[in-house]
Amino acid sequence: MNIPNFDIKELPSSSMNLIVSKRRAGKSYLTQHLINQMKEENRVDVVLLFSGTGAGFDNICEDCRFNDISKLVDVVNNYKTMNDFNKLHKSKRGKYKIKTTVIIDDLAGELKSKNYKILNNLATNGRHYAYSPLSLDFFILVQGITMIPRTMRLNADTISFTQIPSHKEFNLLTDECLYLTCTDRESKRLALDYYHSIVSEPYAFMCCELYRNNINQMTDYLKRLKAP
Questions:
Q1: Helix ranges, 89-179 (H)
Q2: Does residue 228 have a cis bond before it (omega within 30 degrees)?
Q3: 212 CA to centre of own chain
Q4: Which of 53-62, 102-111, 183-192 shows the lowest mean pLDDT across its residues?
Q5: Is 60 helix (H, G, I), strand (E, B) or coil?
Q6: CB atoms within 10 A of CB 74
């Protein structure tokens, strides 16, 4: 089966990306790989980590690490201010051009708390806070897709996942992401075969590129995603 690989160059600016897998399945390593690729493409100036444990991502300095997701409000407010400033200045020379990537890892409890409204608003309106030449990308790492509010899932640009041990969560992911081109039982079976052919490889994820339009077949939006 000819399965295309994910290409970071095609990821939209100011994207919302969800990465789902059980513990020790490679979420953090994969995210670091993607950010390194974004840096190579000059798409990242600053990386901020919001994490309950602070583990991993050793190349992120202490000043860019936070254990409270409410601090994200300050980041968003700063971007709103810079975005409004840029709208008033037609000259490119005087505009803010900061490109920020935010990682949210191991904060599942926060996603279900009142603070998740911050993320819901970002999922639906985030790209309007960071028009070019600004950008504000998000990578949200969780062990289960049900930890992510439905509003966020429906507005994500990409959802990447590997083998899912929970039957309930697997069905949720396949219904929301995998069957976009399926019309009958046979096409769903082929989609499942496609998924298993990707995730049967160790540390390989299937990336659902939900931002794409004019999807006619699985290869249009379902890609293999694996860090070397």
A1: 108-111, 116-125, 150-155, 167-173
A2: no
A3: 14
A4: 102-111
A5: coil
A6: 10
Radius of gyration (C-alpha) of the chain in whole angstroms: 18
Of 14, 145, 163, give the one whose Cα is nearest residue 82: 14
Question: What CA–CA distances, in Å, run from 2 to 5, 164, 197, 218, 222?
Answer: 10, 23, 10, 11, 11
Are the beta carbons of 208 and 222 closer than 8 angstroms? yes
Classify strands 205-209 and 222-225 as parallel, antiparallel or unpaired: antiparallel
Question: With 70 as the cut, is the pLDDT of residue 160 above it?
Answer: yes
152 close to 106: Cβ distance less than 8 angstroms:
no
Report helix, strand and coil shares of the chain as percent, to nearest 5: 45, 20, 40
Residue 144's CB is within 10 A of a number of other CB atoms, namely: 17
pTM: 0.92
Which residue, among 141, 157, 45, 62, has the nearest Cα to 100 in the 3D structure? Answer: 45
pLDDT at 113 over 70: no
The rounded distance, in Å, linking the Cα atoms of 75 and 5 is 32
Question: Average pLDDT of the chain?
Answer: 89
Bigger pLDDT: 96 vs 56: 96
Between CA 58 and CA 85 the distance in angstroms is 34
Q: Which residue is associated with the tokens 């694996």? A: 226
Distance (Å) of CA 64 to CA 49, 57, 102, 109, 118: 6, 11, 10, 21, 19
* Domain architecture of the chain: domains with CATH: 8-225 (3.40.50.300)
